Amino acid sequence: MSESSAVPAVPPAQRPLMPLWAAVLTAAVAAVLMDLSYPEAAVWILAFPAVGLLLLALIGRRAGGALLVGAVYGVVFFALLVSWTSRYLGPVPWAALSVVEGGLTALALIPLTLAYRWVPRAFPSPVAKVVLLPSIVAALWVGRELFVGSWPYGGFPWARLGMTQAQSPLAPVTSWLGISGLSFVMVFFVAVVIEVVRTRRRPGPATLALPAALVLVLGFTPLFPTTGTGSLRIAAVQGNGPSGYFDERESFSLVDAQATATEPLFGEDVDLLVWPEGSLDYDPFQTDALARRMTFVSSRVGAPLLANAATERDGRYYNTSMLWTESGGAEQTHDKRHPVPFGEYVPDRAFFNALAPDLIGLIQREYTPGTNSSVIEVDGVQVGLAICFDVIYDDVVDQGVRDGAGVLVFQTNNADFRGTDENLQQLAFARMRAIETGRSVVNISTVGTSQIIRADGTTVSSLDADEAGAMLENVEIRSGLTAGVVLGPWIQQLLLWGGLGALLVGWWRARRR
Predict the structure, then answer these.
(1) Reading across the β-sheet that carries 381-387, which strands appear in turn?
(2) Does residue 446 contact residue 417 with C-beta atoms inside 8 Å?
């Protein structure tokens, strides 16, 4: 073959940095480190080397190799992160969730490795390699999070990178850029460092200026300012009743456990009494005996009771929170916006029932997604609500704050995951929501851990897991929208479509060059 017709070799900068077997092992190590950055370990700084190792394993790979590397990372990571799903139902749901989410992660990581192949060819300047390439890689990372978090069946946005930083100095960034914005900045920083290290020349001051500036942004960004407008005296009760799916219980055992734990609050000055998700045994709108118990508790405390139960309306079931008043009854209700697939309903039931009839048969009710407001009014104060896993979906929390919520209340039932990391992970997400929105958060669980959290993420009051108890605090009300709430959805769309668009431009220019 003549020199003029020879196929040009792949430039060294775009060859894999390690053989495939080493990349697979590196991806597995990255998955372990990423899991350790989430609660219970919550070693937040490990998220950075986890991202770095994964990117190093992807650089220079073709699509098939990237798919394998991504699959190892995704399956190992999700298997560790959501191991709590096997607590009661066994290994099948855990393995299925890990494989599905890991497979989707693998598919969505392929664009990152393509960016490392195409962008340096399309834009060979040093500035493009240190600035443009990392920004595209970081945008594609956020796009991957949005994809996995929204599809299929509404997605599972449990594993967003920004959520690892709930107790780190980086958390205030979310009040400016949102959760996805923090994910972008973190990946951008790691990708910039990788490119600076990969340069064969000794980096000069100009080259080092960008990562240094990113360190300052990440570590020293203040909270976006919001305004305190008063307080609401909120009592939150953790009954520690038999609220698990397979717990043995007698009639009215849930409401009795909650009522017993509420008794120390009788005679106290309370504006709002909050019980967790799953705090009622039956539908109070159809069970007079339960309604009378709720009215009694509300009267003795002297405040409306925010409780939760499965309700039925027009032949449909809802996961409903209701504000029960001393006069009996509730005019303000909120239905869970995102029922959990395979937990609260079964999509494509006939198909999945053929695969696992015993497991699918356990889920008898088909909960309907709520469409009503996530805000209730208590003494002129707007209170934003999110039920259980709704806390991980941006639309529910953001809409509540946009509709005027001055404080947020998250009700959850973690009884099926006793003794696992699930509650601590969800609590970390609630803490991050407080910081992102600039709102105090009351996070109340049936079995713990429950906390009242300030708008800066610090803890006001806490109840340990597996213990009954009550919290009573003057919870600060705040007004004003943070930049993270206002700009967050726009930043997500910009990163999603901007990253994909830049990748396509890189592919087109690389082919032309």
Answers:
(1) 375-378, 381-387, 407-412, 440-445, 450-453, 459-463
(2) no
Distance of alpha carbon 190 from alpha carbon 57, whole angstroms: 14
Residues of 130-155 as b/e, b for ≥16 C-beta within 10 angstroms? Answer: bbbbbbbbbbbbbbbbbbbbeeeebb
Give the predicted TM-score (pTM) of the model. 0.94
Cα–Cα distances (Å) from 28 to 18, 93, 102, in that order, read 14, 21, 12
Please work out, in degrees rounded to the nearest 5, the angle formed at the alpha carbon of residue 156 by the alpha carbons of 237 and 22.
125
pLDDT, tens only, 60-103:
999 999 999 999 999 999 999 999 999 877 898 899 999 999 99
Rg (CA), the chain: 25
User: Encoding tokens for residue 27?
Assistant: 């991806």
pLDDT digits (tens, 9 = 90+) for 475-508: 999 999 999 999 999 999 999 999 999 999 999 9
Q: Name, in order, each residue with C-beta under 8 angstroms of 249's C-beta and a sequence gap of 6 or more.
A: 241, 242, 281
Instruction: Mention every residue, 6+ apart, whose C-beta is less than 8 A from residue 139.
Output: 184, 495, 496, 498, 499, 502
C-alpha dihedral (313, 317, 323, 327), degrees to nearest 10 = 40
Size of the chain in residues: 513
464 contacts 238 by C-beta, under 8 angstroms: no
CA-nearest of 372, 260, 359 to 311 is 372
